[in-house]
Every structure is written in C-alpha cells, then in structure tokens.
Design goal:
The complex is a heterodimer of chains A (about 170) and B (about 325). Chain A has about 170 residues and is mainly alpha-helical. Helices cover about 75% and strands about 0% of the residues of chain A. Classes of the chains: A mainly alpha (about 170), B mainly alpha (about 325).
Chain lengths: ~170, ~325
C-alpha cells in the first residue's frame, strides 16, 4: 500500500463517516455541516484521482452553492429540531429493500474485483483537456443537461411571476 | 530525498512569507482605515499609541487576546467556536495561488514565486470564497440571537448572489489568457494589462468584490444601526478578532486578485515584482476605504437588484462580446 492508497482509504473513511452522521442528525444545521464535510471529502478524492477541475467544481457547486441554499432555507424556516417519529412501513420498507440490493451488488462487485489488480497511477487531467473531451465526445448530453436547467429556470420564473401580481410598485 | 527536503523548506519559507505579509498588512490596514476615515470625517483618528498612532494595532492585538472569550449560554457551542476560524482560514488560503513575482533560480533550481501553481487556481479561489460564506452564516446561526441570525441570512444571500457576478466577470479574462492558472493569467499580460481591453469586466469585478467582502456600501450583514453588529454581535475577544482578520485579509486578497486579473499582477517597470504587487494591493485597499468614507449603505432590494439585474446581465453580455471578438 503506497501513500496514495492510504490517502484514498482515509478519505473514504471520512466521507462515509460524515455522510452517516449527516443522515442521522436531528439538528438540521449539523446535518448540513456534516454533508458539506462529505462533499469536501469527495472533492479531495477527485483531486487524488487526478481531476482537479472536478474537485474545484464539486466544492464550488455542491459545497459552496447548493448546501448554502439548504442552510439558508433551514435558517429562514427556523426548524431547529424535528420531532422523533417513526416512518410508516410502506415508506421505509422499499428503501430498505433497495438499499440491501445495492449492498449485495456492491459486495459482489468488490469480491469479483473487476480491474481490482490494476494499480492506481497518478495522472492529472488538465482543465482544457477535460473541456475538449467533454465538448467533443459528449456535446449532445451536455446540451441536453443544459436544456434541463433552462426548463427549471423557466419554471421558477413562471412560479415567481404568478405570485408577484398583487405587489404594488410603489415601494421600489 | 535531500531535494525533497529542500523543496519542502522552500515551500515553508514561502508560506511563512505570504502569511507574515498578509497578517502584518491586515493589522496596519485597520490602522490606515481608522486614520483615513478619521481625516475624511474631519477628526484625528487613533493618535495616542506611538507617533501617528502607529502602535495602535499592537495595542489592539494585546487587548483582543487578553479579553474574556464569551460563549453565550444558548449558543451551539462547537459551531460557534469554529465559525470565525472558517472565515479567517478561507481568506488566507485564497492567497496560496496568487503569484507574487517571476520564477527565480536558487542554487541552480527553479523556484516559482507562488505558494502553489494550481492549474485550476481561479476555481480554487472561488471555492474558498464560497466556503467563506459558511463562517458568516453558521456564526450568525450558532449565536442564537435575532440580530446575528438576520445578519447571517443576509450575508449568505448577498454572498451567493454576488459570487455569480464575480465568477462571470472573470470568464473573459480566462478566454483571453487561455488558462485557469493565475500564473498563466499574469504571464498573458506581459505586453498590456487586461484592464485596457476589459474595462467592463473590471468594473463588475471590483463592485462584486466589494460586495463579497461585505464592506460599505454593501455591509448589510453587519448593518450597525439595524442589527447591532450583525453576524458577529455575540462574539468577543480574539474570536471577534478572527472575523476582523478574515475581513482585512479578504480585502488584501481581493486587491491581489484585481491586480492579477486586470492590472498585470506583479508586472511593472523598474521596481521588483513583489513590490509592485504590494503597491497594487495597497492602492486597491485604500480605494475601498475611500469608498467606505464616501458612500451610504444600499437598501436590501437595491442590493439584490444591482446584483441580479445589472451586474449579471452585463457580465453575460461581456462574455458574448469577448467571445465574438476572440473568434474573429
């Protein structure tokens, strides 16, 4: 085990632990903080695997924008503690079955080791190389994803506009 | 092994140098700000400790460190204690990718004058800047006080709004330089600084940078006459000091980024590189203090309208125009 694989397992441990803590906290702000830690770990994992661009984007978009919005909503609504309750069986049983299935598939994949004997090499994908790869080989999927975002944007605009009719212009 | 140790030692020296300059300058920027604001408002400013009050930062530091560190009874203790560190650390980390001179040769070895030349340096700066929001938002929330919570919410909303304009205004610079590395961006300005070809991007960046550092006219998160001191109302002693250090280091880093993106970084005639960068940083910081002494605070709807309806469309139009010109 060289330094990189040691770092890999350390990071994975941090990610798993912080994600587990994030989904079990009753205090929502603590959950958000743990999830940010988990995203930060994933970003470092990307960096370790030679994708600095993805690492930076992971921190900017997930930790820096999406989780800030989560925190913002939590602070605005001021729901500091959720009451303890058990979910009805029809909600958690499908989730448990799917989770178990995923665990079995994962264990099988790990035990058969597809490509597990290959050693991880340290490689770095330059941002420009990554960009031309994505936009030359996968331009159609990129465009479809951006269209999806445009639809979400238009939807938000529509919903926001409908509510705004009653507001007078005098206090602007 | 010896080469590795030597490289590590050089790295440590560079980190020490950058942090030393940043923190020293942060202390004296506070002094300069109080002195300059005093003169702008026709009063003296600090003048008791040493000549011209020059020992004031040292007196302030001793005061901060010897004061009691109070944690409110109802506060969320861990997050309350961590939040100031997040603000200070993210501000200081941003300085790691700012180049402060040309590569020099030391005992036959190339030593780049930057702590680390990341090929995604620009994105690293934005990542750290967006993480800095957590210090403000969590500090405000963890204090468990109405004023602090309102300040934290305002800070979070303001900083994510202006981050978009900040990021978009830099895209034309990246298009011209063809790289996300700050070292390459400075090298691309060898013949002329980018402010000459990108005046619109420069204005958008400076305005958003001022909003990002939460200074007047954008200091709604800590609006004294409405919120006490906003998100750091409940902080005392050195933890309050860390919010302060974070703010002044942030000011310098934004000054350094303005220099790197638009004013040619460390490039300049006659004087050595690091000195030029220092001059540019100080000029930007002094202009920010001057603006603080001149303008009143924006109203909240004006702040959001300026960000979303003026700066972001202008930045997007600038990207399209620059793209067209580069293509032609």
């Amino acid at each position: 085990m060289n330094l990189y694989s040691a770092l890999f397992y350390l990071l994975s441990l941090v990610i798993l632990a912080s994600t587990a803590l994030a989904i079990t906290r009753r205090n929502l702000v603590h959950a958000v903080v743990y999830l940010v830690l988990s995203f930060f770990g994933s970003a470092l994992l990307f960096y370790l695997l030679g994708a600095p661009l993805l690492a930076a984007l992971e921190v900017i978009i997930y930790a820096g924008a999406i989780m800030i919005l989560f925190l913002f909503i939590v602070m605005m609504l001021n729901v500091e503690r959720l009451e303890e309750r058990f979910f009805p069986a029809r909600q958690w049983v499908p989730a448990a079955v799917l989770g178990l299935l995923l665990a079995v598939v994962g264990l099988l994949a790990v035990s058969t080791q597809p490509g597990g004997d290959r050693l991880l090499k340290t490689a770095v994908a330059a941002p420009s190389a990554f960009g031309s790869y994505v936009f030359q080989r996968h331009w159609l999927s990129v465009e479809i994803v951006s269209l999806l975002l445009l639809i979400a944007l238009a939807g938000v605009l529509f919903l926001g506009r409908d509510n705004d009719k009653g507001v007078s212009e005098e206090d602007r | 092994m010896i080469a590795w140790i030597a490289g590590f030692a050089v790295l440590l020296v560079k980190i020490g140098l950058v942090l030393g300059v940043l923190l020293f300058l942060a202390a004296y920027l506070v002094w300069a700000e109080r002195k300059l604001l005093g003169r702008l408002q026709i009063r003296y400013g600090p003048n008791r400790a040493g000549i011209f009050g020059l020992l004031q930062p040292i007196a302030d530091a001793i005061k901060m460190m010897t004061k009691e560190d109070i944690v409110p009874e109802a506060a969320d203790r861990t997050i309350f204690l961590l939040a100031p560190a997040v603000v200070a650390v993210t501000a200081m980390l941003m300085a790691a990718v700012v180049p402060f001179g040309p590569t020099i040769t030391l005992w036959g070895r190339q030593v780049p004058m930057v702590v680390t030349d990341l090929n995604v340096g620009l994105l690293f700066v934005f990542a750290m800047s967006s993480l800095g929001v957590y210090g403000v938002a969590l500090g405000g929330w963890a204090s468990n006080s109405k004023f602090a919570l309102l300040g934290g919410i305002r800070g979070a909303a303001q900083m994510i709004s202006y981050e978009l304009a900040l990021g978009l205004s830099i895209v034309p610079v990246v298009m011209l330089a063809g790289s996300l590395s700050l070292v390459d961006i400075v090298d691309a300005q060898a013949s002329y600084p980018f402010i000459l070809v990108q005046p619109v991007a420069f204005v958008i960046f400076v305005v958003s940078a001022m909003a990002e550092s939460k200074r007047i006219p954008f200091d709604l998160p800590e609006a004294e006459n409405e919120l006490g001191a906003g998100y750091h109302t409940e902080y005392s002693g050195m933890r309050f000091g860390m919010f302060f250090i974070g703010e002044y280091v942030h000011m310098q880093v934004l000054g350094a980024l303005i220099a790197v993106f638009f004013l040619g970084g460390w490039r300049g005639p006659l004087l050595p590189g690091p000195l030029w960068l220092l001059i540019k940083i100080i000029v930007v910081a002094l202009v920010m203090i001057w603006v603080r002494g001149t303008l009143p605070r924006l109203r909240y709807d004006q702040l959001m309208a300026l960000g979303w309806k003026v700066l972001i469309p202008a930045a997007l139009a600038n990207i399209v125009i620059t793209g067209a010109v580069v293509l032609l």
